[in-house]
Specification:
Strand content: over 45%
Largest sheet: 11 strands, antiparallel
Radius of gyration: 18 Å
Shape: globular
Oligomer: single chain
Strand order of the largest sheet: 5-4-3-2-1-11-10-9-8-7-6
Number of helices: 2
CATH class: Mainly Beta
Number of strands: 11
CATH architecture: Roll
Helix content: under 10%
Order of helices and strands: EEEHEEHEEEEEE
Number of domains: 1
Length: about 260
């Protein structure tokens, strides 16, 4: 995570969910989230070299789903967070202000996340958690069973931290097996993705950046019989070109990010 940190939303499986909904009015699930990101920024067009940064974040999050008209209210609380980073922009104060932060969204009847926000809104670590929590609601075809495969497309808008980005995803799914997680039966879904991104993002050094990029990824999601996300992992590779205002040259940025989410019984 450097000053050129791109908007990378870890996506497990965005893709319509037909398992029976839980009968309870609300249910809370706790997770551990581990994120590792390697980023390389090529500044050769501006007389510089390559800048490489590595970051790691471990967060403990409680996510509550509450029945609401037309879907479910989603509320997450970041209980604790640890981080390591070679980027000077991330400090202990950043981690301290993220603790106790909240995530809010609405899960509509088609299992799409609407209006995701984080509070405080200007914390980059909480923003990472927002991206992961927003990816915990796979869209699975009706009656999905072992061996089934399908494809889906979805568009994600990212307006957090002053960004105005749109990402288009093409996703291929398969049901690969069943597992038992903390005594609960779960379907194991595999997903591969391709994405394209356009928009703008602020930067403290050069002002507004024009952003375009493409990415690919793969991962798994574990989905319980009541539709809850019970864990998963994903790795995403993203190539971006960031162009400062009034500059003809673009800054190439390469990011490889791995996310692992583990259910806390």
């Amino acid at each position: 995570m450097s000053s050129f940190r791109p908007a990378v939303f870890a996506t497990f499986a965005l893709g319509v969910f037909a398992m029976p909904a839980p009968k309870r009015a609300s249910v809370t699930t706790k997770y551990r989230i581990d994120v590792k990101a390697d980023q390389t920024v090529d500044l050769s067009a501006f007389g510089g070299g390559s800048q490489a940064t590595t970051s790691g974040v471990t967060a403990w999050v409680a996510v509550t789903l509450t029945d609401s008209a037309g879907g479910k209210a989603v509320r997450g609380i970041l209980d604790s967070v640890n981080f390591t980073s070679s980027a000077p922009s991330i400090t202990q104060a950043t981690a301290d202000s993220a603790k106790g932060g909240t995530i809010h969204a609405f899960l509509d009847s088609t299992r799409r996340i609407q209006n995701p926000v984080a509070r405080p809104a200007d914390n980059v670590l909480l923003d990472q958690a927002l991206g992961v929590v927003s990816s915990m609601f796979p869209r699975v075809k009706s009656g999905a069973k072992l061996g089934d495969k399908w494809s889906d497309t979805t568009d994600v808008a990212n307006t957090t931290l002053g960004r105005n980005l749109k990402t288009h995803f093409v996703l291929d799914y398969s049901v690969d097996g069943q597992e038992t997680i903390a005594g609960m039966a779960a379907l194991r879904l595999s997903v591969t993705s391709k994405s394209t991104m356009t928009g703008t993002a602020p930067n403290s050094q050069v002002g507004t950046l024009s952003v375009e990029g493409a990415g690919s990824g793969s991962g798994t999601s574990l989905i319980g019989a009541d539709g809850r996300f019970l864990g998963g992992s994903t790795t995403v590779s993203l190539d971006q070109k960031l162009t400062p205002a009034r500059s003809p040259a673009a800054i190439p940025v390469k990011v490889v990010q791995t996310v692992v989410v583990t259910l806390i019984p």
